[in-house]
Design goal:
The complex is a heterotetramer of chains A (about 150), B (about 120), C (about 160) and D (about 90). Chain B is mainly α. Helix content of chain B is about 75%, strand content about 0%. The radius of gyration of chain B is 20 Å and the shape is elongated. Chain D has one domain (about 1-85). Chain D has helices at about 1-25, 30-55, 55-85. In chain D, α1 runs antiparallel to α2 and α2 runs antiparallel to α3 (about 55-85). Chain D starts with a helix and ends with a helix. The chains are: A mainly alpha (about 150), B mainly alpha (about 120), C mainly alpha (about 160), D mainly alpha (about 90). The interface of A and D includes residues 14, 41, 48 and 56 of A.
Chain lengths: ~150, ~120, ~160, ~90
C-alpha cells in the first residue's frame, strides 16, 4: 500500500502545478498534427499528472477525482473513437483510416476532412493511453490489488 | 547589423555565459563536496539560477528578428519554462533530501553532532 | 468566482502556448479549460471566494520577488566560491539546525521553505510541528536564520495583521 | 551567433559527461538520482539551443517544457519510492 508523503511543501507546490500540467497534456493532444507530440505523448502527460496526484496526496484522493469506473470507460471510449473513425472511412468505400473520404459526410473539402480525421484519431489514442497508463501505475503501486487497498 | 542587434547580442551572450558559469560551478561542486547533503547545495541552487539566466538569454534572443506575434509567444513560452523550474526545482531538491532524512541518513559533520538547536542558548 | 478566474488564467495560457487563432483551435482551448477545471477546480484556488486580502497578497508577493532574486544571486556566488575554492574542506562545516517559526499559514510556510532552499547555503529538510529542520553548509550563513526573510514572508502573507 | 550557441551546447554536453561520473561511481543511490536531475536541467538548455541551431524554436520549446515537467515528476516519484523502501 502506498503511503502519503506528509509533506506540506510538496503538497502545495503540486496543488499549484497539476492543473497546468493537465492543460499542457491537452495542448499536446490538440496540436499533435502541427507540432511535436500527439495522442500518445499527451496521454502520457495527462497520466503523469494523475501520478502526481497519487504521489502528493494519496490514493483515495486520486480515486475521487478519477474513479476506477471512469478509467474503464475512458480506456474503451478511446478505442471506440479510433475504430469508428477508421470504419467510417471503410463504410464510405475507402480504405481503413483513409480520412479524405470523410468529406462526403462532413461539410468540408477532402484536405480539411483529412485534418479533422487525424485529429479525432489523436483524441482517441490520447484518451486510451491516459487510461491505460493510470491503470498500469495503480496496479504497480498497489501490487495488483487496488480494490482492496481502497477499503483499508 | 544595426546597433540594437549588437547590444542585444552582447546582452544575450553575457546572460547565457553567466548561466553556463553557474552550471559549471554546480557541476564542480557536485563532484567535490563530501556528502550528498552538501552536493544538493551545489546542484539545487546553481542549476536553478543557471536555468533562469539561460532561459532569459534565450528568450531575449528569440526576439532578434523582429517583434512579430510568433516570436513574442515563443519568448513567453521560454519564460514559462523558467517560472516552472523556479517553482519545481527547490521542491524536487527538498523532496529528495526529505526522503534521505526520513530514511535515517545523517549528514557528514566535522564534530559528529548532526542536529543542533538554533538559535543557540 | 474561482471558476471564472481559473478559466481566464488557463485560457490566456492556452493562447500563449497555441499561437493559432482560428475558431477550431480556440474552441478546443475552451473545451480543454473546462475539462481541466472540472477535474481539478479545487487545486489552484482552495477557497471559493476571493477577498480584498488576496489581491494585496499577490501585489506584495510580486514585490517580494526582486529581493528574492538578489538573494539568490548572492547565494549562487557563495556556493560557486565554495565549490571552486582549493581548500574547500576547511571552509565548510555542515550541520542540520532546528529552529521554531512564527508562521502558520500553508502558503507562507511553503514560500519561506522554498526561499530558504534558494538562498545562501541552506536547504529545508523537514517542517514538523512548527519547527524547521534546515541543512546549513557553514555556521556563518546559518546565523541569519530565521531573521529578515521570515519577517518579509510574514509581511507578504499578512501573518502579523490577524494575530 | 550560431557558433556561440553551438559552443555553449558543447560545453553543456561536456558538463553532462562530468556528471555521469557521479551517476556511475556515486556512493549512494541518492547521488545517482541527483545526477539524473542535473543531467535533466542541462539537457533542457541544450534542447533550447538546438532550437536556434535548427531554426525550429516553436517545436523545441514544447519538447523542453515537457522535459522540465517530466524531470520534476521523476524526482518526486524517486523520492517517494526511496522513503518507502527505507534503504539506501
Amino acid at each position: 500500500m502506498i503511503t502519503p508523503l506528509e509533506n506540506i511543501i510538496i503538497k502545495t507546490i503540486c496543488r499549484l502545478l497539476i492543473p497546468f500540467i493537465q492543460l499542457f497534456g491537452l495542448y499536446v493532444i490538440a496540436h499533435g498534427h502541427g507540432s511535436p507530440g500527439g495522442g500518445f505523448q499527451g496521454g502520457c502527460i495527462l497520466a503523469a499528472s494523475f501520478m502526481l496526484v497519487v504521489v502528493a496526496f494519496d490514493l483515495p484522493e486520486a480515486k475521487r477525482r478519477f474513479s476506477e469506473k471512469m478509467n474503464n470507460i475512458f480506456s474503451s471510449l478511446g478505442v471506440f473513437i479510433y475504430a469508428w473513425t477508421g470504419w467510417m472511412c471503410l463504410l464510405l468505400g475507402a480504405n481503413f483510416l483513409d480520412y479524405g473520404i470523410l468529406s462526403k459526410i462532413l461539410p468540408v473539402n477532402p484536405v480539411m476532412a483529412r485534418y479533422y480525421g487525424m485529429f479525432s484519431i489523436e483524441v482517441g489514442v490520447g484518451i486510451t493511453v491516459m487510461a491505460i497508463m493510470v491503470s498500469l501505475f495503480l496496479d504497480l503501486v498497489t501490487g495488483g490489488k487496488h480494490e482492496e487497498a481502497l477499503d483499508e | 547589423m544595426s546597433i540594437l542587434t549588437v547590444v542585444l547580442n552582447i546582452v544575450v551572450i553575457v546572460l547565457i555565459s553567466f548561466g553556463v558559469f553557474f552550471f559549471a560551478a554546480g557541476t564542480v561542486g557536485f563532484l567535490r563536496f563530501p556528502d550528498f547533503y552538501s552536493r544538493m547545495h551545489a546542484t539545487g541552487k546553481c542549476d536553478t539560477l543557471g536555468v533562469v539566466l539561460s532561459c532569459a538569454g534565450i528568450a531575449l534572443y528569440a526576439l532578434h528578428d523582429g517583434l512579430s506575434l510568433g516570436n513574442i509567444l515563443v519568448s513567453l513560452k521560454i519564460m514559462f519554462i523558467a517560472v516552472f523550474w523556479f517553482l519545481g526545482g527547490p521542491t524536487a531538491t527538498h523532496a529528495l533530501l526529505n526522503s534521505a532524512f526520513n530514511s535515517g541518513i545523517l549528514p557528514w559533520t566535522k564534530d559528529g553532532k548532526a542536529i543542533i538547536e538554533w538559535p543557540p542558548k | 468566482m474561482r471558476y471564472i478566474v481559473s478559466f481566464i488564467i488557463f485560457f490566456l495560457l492556452w493562447v500563449i502556448w497555441s499561437g493559432k487563432f482560428d475558431f477550431f483551435h480556440l474552441s478546443l482551448g475552451v473545451i480543454s479549460c473546462i475539462l481541466v477545471i472540472s477535474i481539478s477546480h479545487d487545486l489552484l484556488f482552495q477557497r471559493s471566494n476571493f477577498q480584498k486580502k488576496d489581491i494585496t497578497e499577490t501585489v506584495r508577493f510580486i514585490k517580494y520577488i526582486p529581493w528574492l532574486l538578489y538573494q539568490i544571486i548572492l547565494a549562487n556566488i557563495h556556493v560557486a566560491k565554495l565549490a571552486l575554492h582549493p581548500r574547500m574542506n576547511d571552509l565548510i562545516d555542515p550541520h542540520i539546525i532546528r529552529f521554531k517559526t512564527k508562521l502558520r499559514k500553508d502558503m507562507s510556510l511553503v514560500t519561506f521553505a522554498n526561499s530558504i532552499t534558494l538562498t545562501p547555503g541552506t536547504i529545508t529538510i523537514l517542517i514538523r510541528d512548527g519547527y524547521y529542520f534546515v541543512h546549513a553548509i557553514d555556521m556563518k550563513v546559518a546565523g541569519d536564520l530565521p531573521g529578515e526573510m521570515e519577517e518579509r514572508v510574514g509581511h507578504v502573507f499578512m501573518e502579523d495583521s490577524d494575530g | 551567433m550560431d557558433n556561440f550557441f553551438l559552443a555553449i551546447a558543447l560545453v553543456l554536453s561536456f558538463l553532462v559527461l562530468i556528471c555521469l561520473y557521479r551517476a556511475v561511481f556515486g556512493p549512494t543511490v541518492i547521488d545517482r538520482i541527483i545526477s539524473v536531475g542535473v543531467v535533466g536541467t542541462k539537457t533542457l538548455i541544450v534542447l533550447l539551443l538546438m532550437g536556434f541551431i535548427y531554426k525550429r524554436m516553436d517545436m523545441f520549446v514544447d519538447i523542453s517544457l515537457l522535459y522540465a515537467i517530466l524531470s520534476f515528476i521523476g524526482a518526486l516519484i524517486f523520492a517517494k519510492y526511496f522513503v518507502r523502501k527505507g534503504v539506501l
